[in-house]
Amino acid sequence: MNAITTPADWATDQEVRWCPGCGDYAILKAVQRTMPEIGTPPEKTVFVSGIGCSSRFPYYMETYGFHTIHGRAPAIATGVKLANPELDVWIITGDGDGLSIGGNHMLHLLRRNLDCQVLLFNNEIYGLTKGQYSPTSRTGTRSPSTPFGSVDRPANPCSFALGAGARFIARTIDTAQKAMPEILKRAHAHKGTSFVEIFQNCIVYNDGVFDAFTDKKAAADHQLHCEHGKPLLFANGTKGLAFDEATMTVSVVDIREGDTAKVMVHDETNRIMAQLLIDMPFGPFPMALGVIWCSPAATFDVAVVEQNAAASAGKSADLDALLRKGQSWEIAAKDFHAV
What we know:
By secondary structure, the chain is an alpha/beta fold. The protein has eleven helices and eleven strands. The longest helix has 16 residues, at 23-38.
């Protein structure tokens, strides 16, 4: 039976060092508050990060951890999980770390479906390296590396994850202290790679970039909280999403007198619905939050463990025989010549 822990048991004695007002503080607190409810003991938990502001995370969690190299957290985490499948593995990454140099590693982690949780902090900028535009930065973003405005089309993290074969995708906001713990618990309960995009405000280099839907005054009208089996409503229930089968598109409809007959009911197991919710352009449509897609499948770590067990069944380890197997040779004493 696991020992009962408190949030304080998950906090280290290290000084938390992010810019004052950074959204990372809120995410850290939400994770530390949620871990006792999840129930896995700290000594069986590992946080793995790459490079970036978010990647300081392992220093602040009283667990095992690896602060690895740029973009390679998924590769290190895979090794950790395969070496000890009993460990609870969490990957902390950012939009730059996880989707630029780490895009290849992220893709293979998602398609393999390793049993782990990925928390991708998306602030649409490179914060640690002083504000250059990132893969998720919007077209027109001015930064030290794009002084005239970015001409790139931004990557959509959740769309990338879905295309790569992720089986669990969710979205939340750094300040959503009530919603985030529930999403973290859902992500942990899912067996396989859970991908959670967290909109995180960079107060120094990209302050307020998400205000259009995160500001308290805008939240009700511009946030759509997806709950499995419930109508896709927002704006305090006065608006909803409807699907047009003829055009295979989604539209916003006004709700009159509680009539929700035309409104779609969220089905987190429906991949087409997940794609529609993820790709809705913000502005005409609200920002979809919550668990968007969940469809469990066999995990990579279980398959590897089972394969290794089958391959080694009935065999005993002989290191000497292994070293001498294949292209090895013996040099006899007579073959030595004095120099």
